[in-house]
Amino acid sequence: MAIKVVAYDKKFVGEAIKIWNEVVREGIAFPQEEELDETTGDEFFKAQSFTGLAVDEDNDEILALYILHPNNVGRCGHISNASYAVRSDVRGKHIGEIIVKDCIAKAKQLGFRILQFNAVVATNIHARHLYQRLGFKELGIIPGGFRMPDGSFEDIVPQFIELGIRNEE
Q1: What CA–CA distance (Å, rounded) separates 106 from 12?
Q2: Which of 112, 118, 158, 169 would disulfide-bridge 139, Cβ 3.0–4.6 Å?
Q3: What was the pLDDT predicted at 1?
Q4: pLDDT at position 169, please?
Q5: Span 38-73, pLDDT tens digits
């Protein structure tokens, strides 16, 4: 399977919201609880600094996506944040690694100095292992920082990676 990452285009909104909403419904990774429709999805994906879509070059299907945006404003606007969603039927095929690597490169290209994840759920072991393999550092644990679908609370493990852009003095 050959995969390329392309910029979001409205023609992909249906496939993109289907993947995004699947993760929202699972309730174990994203903080969002509201699903996107074609209108809110298109607005949401266009509002990001970049939305990348992982496309299977053999059949032009969207397999995964990510959103990249500032983590904060003003004096902290150089820190980016991202979220990733991989279609459930293709998980485990290293597509997540492709989009995370693309996201790191895109964040650097857009001038961000750091990529930070605020709310990696502690039980999301596959994502945590991937991030560690790619050089992210865990910042500690926020006990009970994420509300699971059953109402219980799970720890979150914020993470970051420096993007190699240094002060020019």
Answers
A1: 20
A2: 158
A3: 80
A4: 38
A5: 999 999 999 999 999 999 999 999 999 999 999 999
In a domain, 71, yes or no: yes
Q: Going by C-beta distance under 8 Å and a sequence separation of 6 or more, which residues neighbour residue 11?
A: none
Q: Crossing angle for the helix pair 38-47 and 13-26, nearest 10 degrees?
A: 90
Task: Report how many domains make up the chain.
Answer: 1
> Whole domain around residue 12: which residue ranges?
3-116
> Do 116 and 107 form a contact (C-beta atoms < 8 A)?
no
- Count of CB atoms within 10 A of residue 101's CB? 13
C-alpha 24, offset from chain centre: 13
Q: For 34, list phi and psi in degrees, rounded to 5.
A: -90, 135
Query: CA torsion angle for 14, 15, 16, 19 (degrees, to 10)?
Result: 120
Decide if 128 is inside a domain: no
Indicate which CATH number applies to the domain containing 8.
Answer: 3.40.630.30
What sign results for the dihedral spanned by CA atoms 107, 113, 117, 118? Answer: negative
- Condensed to tens digits (0 to 9), the pLDDT of residues 14-42 reads 999 999 999 999 999 999 999 999 999 99
- Cite the beta strand spans of 11-169 per DSSP E: 50-56, 61-70, 79-86, 114-117, 137-138, 142-147, 153-156, 159-162
